Input
Amino acid sequence: MSISVLLVDDHVLMLMGLKELLEKESDLQVEDALSDPTALASRIKFSHPDVAVLDVRLKSQNGIELTQMLKEQFPYLKVVLLSGYAYDEYIEAAIQAGADAYVSKEKSNTELITTIRQVYRGKKLFPDVHPGRSGEALTPKEREILALIADELTTAEISDRLSISKRTVEYHIASILRKLDADSRIGAVVNGIKKGLLNV
Amino acid sequence: MKKSIFHYILSIFFIVVNIYFLLKIFAIRTSDYFLSQVTSINYYYSLLIIGFFFVTMGFLCYLKKTNSIVMRTFLYLMYSLGFAITLSLPSGLEISPGREIEMIAASSSPYFLMLFFEYFPASSKPKWFKKTRSMILLISIAINFIFFSSYFVHLNHHQAIIEIVRTTVITNIFLSLIACIVLTYLHLKSNSNKVKNQLSVLIGSLVLSFLPVLFFSLIPEIFFQTPGIPFYYSSISISFFPIALAYLLTKQEIIDIKIRLKVLLFEAVTFIFTFFIVNAIFSLFFKLDRTIAFQISILVIVLLLAYHLAQKIFSPLMIRKWTDKAQNIQKEKMTILQKMLQGQHLNSCARLIIRLIHETIDINGTCLIWRVKRIPRMLHQTGIFESADLANRLIHLLNNRKYEQLKEEKLHVFSLGNSDYQRGWIVIGQKTNGTKLEKSELLLLEKIQSDALELLTSTEALSQIGRKLRKSQSRFLSQEQFNRALLDDREEEKRKLSIFLHDEVLQNIILLANKVDALHTEKMIDNKAYLEMKELLMNNIYEIREMSRELHPFMVEDLGLEQSLQALKRKLQNNYNVIIRTTFHLKLKMISKKLSVQVYRIIKELLHNAVKHSSSPVILLSLTDSVHFLTIHVEDQGKGFELPGSLSGMTKDNHLGLMTVQKRVNQLDGVFDIQSERGRGTSITITLPLERSDNHEYQRLVSR
Output
C-alpha cells in the first residue's frame, strides 16, 4: 500500500523537482502538486491524501495558518512543513499550529522522504536546531572560538580571524551556548570560566 | 404604502367599535342594570377619554416617524392598552363583542410591552429577555385559544373558565411588568447617561401617572372599603404616561434631566417661599377674607405663568434680530480679513490716508495713485476724481510727467518716492472755498506725504513677505509629502528585493544544492569536490537568507512582533557580547502588520545602535501597550553621548541611525524622546499611536 502525498509550493521549479524526487520512491505516490493553495481544501476532499507537504511561505497565504486550518478541517491528514527557515521561532509556531513535521529545505532530499514515511506511521518530527547538548564537551574548534568570544570579538571578526565563514562561526557559537547552558555569549564565558575552559 | 393603510384601518376600527359601544351604553345609561355596575356614566366617559388619548398618542408618534420600528411597537402597545381600557366597561356589562375584543387586546398588551422594551431604550438586551418575550407570546396565544375554543363547546359563561382566563391574563401582565422592571433596573445600573436619562423620564412618568390612581382611588377602595376620589379625576394623571413616552420617542436626544430638574426645583422652592412671605406680610396689613385672598393669590400665579409663557414665546423673536445684525458685522469683518490675507492691504491703507487728508483740509476731492508691479493704479479716490474720465487723464499725464498741465487744472500733485523713481502720487483738488492752499496746510500735506510713502512701502513689503511665506510653506508641505512617499517607496523596494532574493535566488540555489546531493549519491562527483561545492553553496544560502531578512523582516508578518523580537534578541546575544533583557506587556491588542514591521525595524535599529556604540553589557528593552498607545523603551548603561542641539546635528555626529528612527517615528505620528549623557548611558522612549488609519496595509506584492 502506497502513501499518497499532496505537494503545495508556489515555486513551480521546486514543486516539479520535489514531485520527480518523490515519484522515484515505490511506496510514495504524488496525488496532486499545487502551486496555488486557494483550491486546497476542495482538492483534499476530492483526492484524500495521507500526507500534505506545504511550503511555510506561500505568496497568498501563510503556511502556518494554512496548517492550522487544514488540521481543523481534516484531523487525520498529516502535515509536513517545508521551509527555508530553520529558526526556532518558526519551528515552535509550526508545532503550535499542529504540524506533524518540519523539514528544512536545504537538508538532503532523503530526509524529506524518510520524514514522510515516519509521519505516515504517526510520528512527529521536528529538527533540533540547536547543535550540541548541555554538558557535552567542547570540540577544540569550539574552545578556540570561546577564547575569542572572551576577547570580545564579534562574529564577523572571528570569521576573519579563523578564515571560516560567518555561518560556521554562528553554528559553533550556537553549539557552545547549548553545551555551556547559556543563552548569551556573556553567560557562556562565565560558565566557561567556572568549568576551567578559559584562563582568566 | 400597505403598512400605513393597515394602520389607518386599525384606527378606524378603533373609532367605529367605540362609537358602537358608546351608543349602546348611552341607551342604557339610566337603567338599574347599568347603575348597579357603576355609579354614573361619567366613569365610562373618563375611560373613553383615556383610551382615546392613548391611541391618538400612539398614532401621532407613529405618523411622526413612520419608518421607525420603535414607533411601530409603541403604536401597537398604545393601541392594545387603549382598547383594553375603553372596553373594560362594555365587557363588564356583557355587551358583545366587548369581552372578546378586550380579551385579545388585554392578552396581547404584555407581549407588545415586551416588544416595545426590546427596542427602547436603544441598547443591547440580555438573552433571557427575548426568551421571556416569546414565552409571554405563547401564553397569550394559549389563553386566546382556550377562551375562543370554549365558545364551540358552549362553556363561555362557565365561571371556572372565566376565572382561569382572567388570572392567566393578569399573571401574564405581571410577568411582563416584572421582566421590564428588571430590565430597567439592569439598565440603570450599567449604561450610558443617555439611556439612563431616558429611563428616568420613563420611570418618572410612570410614577406620576399611576401613583395618584393607586393612592387616591385603588388603595382606599380595596383596603379601606371607602370610596376614594372618583376614578375619572385620575384620568388627568394617567395621561402623563403616553405624553412622556411620546416626548421621549419624538425628541430622541433629550436634555440632561437631572440638571434641568435641579433648576426647576430651585425655581419652584424660591417661588413658593416668596409667595408665602408675601402672603404673610400682606395679611399683616390687610384683613382680607380668606376666599378673596385665595383668589388674589391664584390670580397672581396665573398672571406670572402667563407672563412667563408669553416671554418664552416672544424672546426668541427679539434675539433673532440682534443675532442677525451681529452676524452681518461678523461677515463684513471676515471679508475684510480675507482681503487683507489676499494682499489687499494697500487699498485700505490708501483709504485711511485719504480720510486723513480730508480731515486736515477742506477740499473737493483727492486720490492716491500707486504703482502696482510698475503700473500706476488708482488705489482710492474721492470727490471730483470719482469720474472715470478725469482719473484716466490724470494717470496718463502723471505717466508722462506733465505736471505743468496739472497745475493749470488747479490740481496739486505730491509725488511719493525719490526723484529717480516715482512710486506713486497723491493728487489733491481745489479747496471747497476756492482759496489757495496756505503754507501751514502745505506743510501738513508734506508731512502726510512722507508718512504715506513710508506706510505704503512697508505695507507692500509686508504683503510680499506674506506671499513668500505662504509659497515656501506650501513648498515645504509638498517636500514633506514627497519624503514620506520616498520612504514608503524605499520600504516597498526593499520588500520586493527581499522577496526576490528569498523566493527566486535562494530557492534556485537550494535546488542546485539538492541536485549536487543527488549527483553525489549517484557517485557522479567525487567526495572532495562535493564537500567543497556543498560548503560554498551552504555559505551562499546563508548569506542570501541573512540579506533577505535584513531587507525585510518577514518573520514579523508570519509570526508576530513578540516572537520576532525574541529571535532578534537571540541573534544579537549569539553574535555580540551583550545581554538583552526584554519585558513585553502586550495584551490582546491587535497591532497591524504594517505597524508591527515598523516597530520591529525601530527596535532593531535601536538595539544595534546600543550594541555598537554604547559597549554596555546589558541592554533593557520593554514594549508596553495601553488603550491607544504602544510604548517602546530601550535603555543602556554604556558610554552615552552629548545630545546635539538639533536634528541636523545628528547627521554631523554620525547618528544617522537615530535620525532615521526619529523620522520614522514622526511619520507614524509618534513621540520620540531621548536622554543621554556622557558616561551615563542612553535611554530612548518612543510612543506610537495604535489607532492610525491603516488603509494601505501591506499586501503581498510579488512580481514574477
About this structure: Chain B touches chain A through 40 residues (CB under 8 Å). The first helix of chain B runs from residue 2 to 27. The CA atoms of residues 159 and 165 of chain B lie 10 Å apart.
